[in-house]
Amino acid sequence: MHTELHDISPPAGSTGRRGDRVFLGLSRGAGLTILVLMGGIAAFLAWRASLALAQNEGNFLTTFEWNANASPPVFGIAVLAFGTLVSSLIAMILAVPIAVAIALFTTHYVPRRIGSLIGYVIDLLAAVPSIVYGLWGALLLVPHLVGVYEWLDSWLGWTVVLSYDGGAPRSLMTVGILLAIMILPIVTNVSREVFRQAPDTHQEAALALGATRWEVVRTAVLPFGRSGVISASMLGLGRALGETMAVATVLSPSAILSARILEPGGGTFAQNIASAFKEAGEFGRDALIASGLVLFVITLLVNGAARLIIARRKEYSGANA
């Protein structure tokens, strides 16, 4: 019985079935909608920020004081930028090593069932609202950090950065510890997925050559997942930079820029906006929007850098695994 094979590919110039054309149109429309929304947000922030910056008496980038309702208004982001970057850096230093260790432990050191259970528990941390983290930090974390800060001061107080004079530790260090807990699920989950995609052939080859479990991880898994871990860290950094309610609940804000990260004081962009927006007048809100524009740009740069790093490594998608 002879069976003819017919070419079922669409004719040249055809766009395929109607469903394909509809899906393509919807996909393009969704992508363009996101771009329009982002452009609209950026344009609104830039417009309102320009109204405030035109009347500001000080230098917006270097002024410590924030008094937008004064006459003449004076406000700047020096303290806010310092506090945002320092607290986020502390969070990254604390969270990333722990997150990578958890990801490696759940993917290469325990049975899959136990690893999945641990991963599920880590996922629950991402589901906790930020205000709950803030309340936990204010009521439980802050009181219990006094002894830790006194110990750090006794051993490392000579560095000035880790000196502590007592009082409630509502400081940038406390904010960094809280943010580290909040970004831990993000970095862990992405790193875990990256490590799972490490090629089995590479790991089996290392084992065949007599490598230990750690040597397999060091030579075959970590090099493969390096860019993924960096991208996960940047995604966590983006979360830390924009966190609002938890920081506002824990931090004792001030307009003093100090290198002593254990002492109360400092501020962040998001915390300042949340704390001052309700009492601010129309001009004060424009000033807050100006600081929000800076945070918007920083967050875009961080997430854009993460996407570029992911795009540079095709292995991250698992296509070559």
TrEMBL record:
Any Gene Ontology CC annotation: plasma membrane
Transmembrane domains' residue ranges: 30-54, 74-105, 117-147, 167-187, 287-310
Cell location: Cell membrane
Coiled coil: none
Tree of life domain: Bacteria
Membrane topology term: Multi-pass membrane protein
GO terms, biological process: phosphate ion transport
GO MF term list: phosphate transmembrane transporter activity
Protein's recorded name: Phosphate transport system permease protein
Native source organism of the sequence: Streptomyces smaragdinus
Gene: pstC2_2
